[in-house]
């Protein structure tokens, strides 16, 4: 059974083995994982075997070949060595490799076909090691072609990051390019792509040295039943596979479905006699006979047809239904040929037969499109006998036109044939229709016999119901007295595909949500829905009863930290319960135990299974007592900040509470862990509060005490998560961030080519002026608002002009291109004249799609190094770093300082080469101490999510830049790009190195459309008022940096439209507004985690103080008498509803005033063991306001500590000089400012070792 858990939030789909002709087959059986290093053994566990099967084992470790195959401990004879398998890996972009083109790879001259469609994935192509050699290996990619009306058209696709991985080795492919662009455009229109590419990989090991084994196993020599296959390597690593042998009696029919298949709905059962065998007498399920019809028996016939020039394409999955049995036409494309399809005789019968020829579908931009083709010359050719067509036409034209444009073309052809078997035809078989719905889910036995008694049996599993609920919290029938977290686990034979989805009393509830608070007393229902892999849906109701779980008590008084309480104190708490009525509040004292040992430090990762954290330093425990006003401060940490505490405990700690109070940076995560004897168990977490302290409270179990000590670890981590709640989305964006809320800003805009084009090519000066104004308004706004908005830098990520993707065809087009460059240059010069540091790169429209390079590139005539070297002299706190090559500014870098931080901005134009990426990597390494921004034209593709999150890489440059530039350089914290039309937002953590965060932003509005009426072009340009014009790139992004919080506030604004947020202008209506107005974390060098502990203590419930019942929502009050003066006191309150539901408050502490002329000193004494010896540890904490002298006295020694400051402690562990200590007491005396304190503090007996 395969399950899914709501608490985990993932479903585990399992593909069932349902192909009728698959052998051997595998049933859904869970098996233990083999240990690492064991070979890969086939057949796999749970497989049914019959006849002769091939047993194989592949090695997984270099130098550890498979030496033996065995069944039930007996070696298999005749095992032969087989080559190990390596993998050729490569990333395919969104422009897919299509199987129909027939592209392939040559590995040292041997062809490996790319035999499936591959799109937006990392492909792992198996390469047998006998194709490889030690040393240099040649790999050639070859692009396939298909005939079209314009001639042979080659497939177009991009590959990146090609690698060859062997066992224990990644072959050296450092001489290969990172990106390869294959194809020819549309029938040769793109000459920059290639049709072949040669790569070289150097292999250090001998690929032939590590081999597997293969052997043929004749299962008829084994008894039917369970057997164990094993494979053993030279080092002794052994893999095992439990299989089941099920051979039919000689002469028995072949029975389909096969052993182990998973069935649902209506299934056909076929019993076919072997060659020369007898006709089966029937088919049974679990011994009950099924209604049968005769088939043509063994062998196969042929279905014949001729297809015209409009081919049948394999990718559409066209298929035949022969008397309901499906045959897919997916082995290849069929074009202008006669096709013969093998049809098993078991699918056919004497008499009337129906063949449905069904057109398949393929997903396209317009939806599922059916294949279009014409067939003729249709016939059925039986292996023994004749087939006469019945009303079969001479030809059929099938399909749907272009995505359903043809309503008249049939989607399928229904063809009828009358079959007459020949006199010498083999013995007929049988066919039965099995309605598996009529059977109970689970295992069933199909059987078929001959008259002579030769019987075949197959064990199958039926599954016609959706997933079942394996467990739930709350459970069915439960009475819910306290709040509990929702959890639902499912199980299903075929695996859970979707779910569980849960509602509580009709409202959606998520995994982990608290159930109980707010629920009225009485009956409630959880409804769980789910779907399994076979499509079976299920709905389950889980009824439970709420006893009326109260809210956690609030308005606790006196509040934690209150001091100077005199005499008796009135405790108060507001208690509420759903359903109203009286609520009983029970107040109880809590014993307080503070840490006796503390340590702190910084570590690369959250500790898991080591009690003492590597690199920790001892810390003072004096500041950890609740209410003392002192704190223990950890140093700011770039990785994980932690503080570790040891708190003495007595007896069973189950039900006791640990509470931590402190401060952690907003948006960081504080987690309280407790040692369970073997590992740190995280019990509770919370994000840092924007203002004020953060508290963590956890209830302990018995396992959380180790030798009388509770070990507590508090970690501060940086989740670097895109979940900052800044109120965005609650209203329409109408302004930038408050200027006082951030330190500086920068501007990003991109892909302004349509604005430049319109400013030059439109027919009238008036219309050209409108297009020009959209661009100049943008840059002029930057100039006018630079001081007010704190704009320190401006970046344009390319496509400055529109018409320079290919060499101009004539002088007029050349003039147009130069005109666009001249206009954009003049617009950008507004920034130059204002002295605002800025940079520009070349997009594919600016550099002949990456082909116009070097000092002579047209881009450099307008945006060359000379321009920026001259400007740099006038920039403040910024400088032009220089071009990547002399005279070529398409790749360059700038340096600037803002908000007290140093930055480097690295620009890479479209069509990045490995050499250019290496240059950028060198710059970033040179300035590793600066916060780095990567500016690229091509990096992300638009997100398909409404909020703009989750954008994939664009091709050809995206993955190359990420792998070669971003990942290796931890100072890169931000990537800005354009090129693809839309928005993308990625917040990534652990980029390259653990803890390193990168934000990636795409903001390209060039296709966004403004109506002619809003643009003012109805009169000037003669456009219809509602005609959309591509003026969206009048939008800019203002990136506003809060250095202290390491956060980035992004606003999107068009000065020309005077409008925030471009969502409404997206011609595809993809987004919801959250993509243009958001706040994200940024990993600046200032981004650290600071952890400050005010108090940490263990609280043990003690005697009841008092109990009172009040109406729900009222404050309950009791009086606590007999308080010791000058001491810390702790208490809790439990609210109990009329129905019996309970909720417990956090622990609250306060300090009483000392007696007149007395001091406030808190004391502890405990027996403890260290290295097998007994000690008595005594602590006195000065909770007063003046320094005091303290004397600690025990039967085993005495210590005096002078001038103990307020909040500090005097401490001593006195050696008993024995392995045991008897119960006794210590005496603590203190004096200061003319006042005194004295107290006897008891300690328990203890035996050590």
What does this structure look like?
Residues 1-19 form the signal peptide. Residues 747-981 form the Calcineurin-like phosphoesterase domain. Pfam families: Metallophos (PF00149). This protein is mainly beta and 1249 residues long. It folds into eight domains: 40-81 and 212-245, Immunoglobulin-like (Sandwich); 85-168 and 182-209; 254-295 and 432-462; 300-418; 468-546, Sandwich (Immunoglobulin-like); 592-719, Jelly Rolls; 744-1081, Purple Acid Phosphatase, chain A, domain 2, CATH 3.60.21; 1161-1247, Immunoglobulin-like (Sandwich). The protein is built from eight helices and 94 strands. Mean pLDDT is 91; it is low at 1-33.
How do the helices and strands line up, and which of them pair or pack?
Blueprint (H helix, E strand, L loop, with lengths): L1 E4 L19 E2 L13 E3 L4 E3 L2 E7 L7 E6 L2 E2 L4 E4 L1 E8 L11 E4 L2 E4 L7 E8 L6 E8 L2 E4 L2 E4 L2 E10 L2 E2 L8 E4 L13 E8 L7 E8 L6 E9 L4 E8 L8 E3 L5 E2 L2 E7 L7 E6 L2 E2 L2 E4 L4 E8 L11 E4 L2 E4 L8 E8 L6 E8 L2 E4 L2 E4 L2 E9 L3 E6 L4 E4 L13 E10 L7 E7 L6 E9 L4 E8 L5 E6 L5 E2 L3 E2 L1 E6 L3 E9 L2 E2 L5 E2 L6 E11 L4 E10 L7 E4 L4 E4 L3 E7 L6 E12 L3 E7 L13 E3 L12 E2 L6 E9 L8 E8 L4 E7 L4 E8 L6 E6 L9 E9 L26 E6 L3 H9 L3 H25 L1 E6 L14 H23 L4 E3 L17 H6 L1 H8 L5 E8 L2 E11 L2 E8 L5 H13 L4 E8 L19 H9 L5 E7 L3 E7 ...
Parallel strand pairs: 4-22, 24-42, 44-51, 53-85, 65-66, 66-67, 70-71, 71-72, 72-74
Antiparallel strand pairs: 1-46, 2-4, 3-5, 5-20, 6-7, 6-21, 8-20, 9-12, 9-16, 10-11, 10-13, 13-19, 14-15, 16-17, 16-18, 21-22, 23-25, 25-40, 26-27, 26-41, 28-40, 29-32, 29-36, 30-31, 30-33, 33-39, 34-35, 36-38, 37-39, 41-42, 43-46, 45-49, 47-48, 47-50, 50-51, 52-54, 54-82, 55-81, 55-83, 56-57, ...
Helix pairs in contact: 1-2, 1-3, 2-3, 6-7
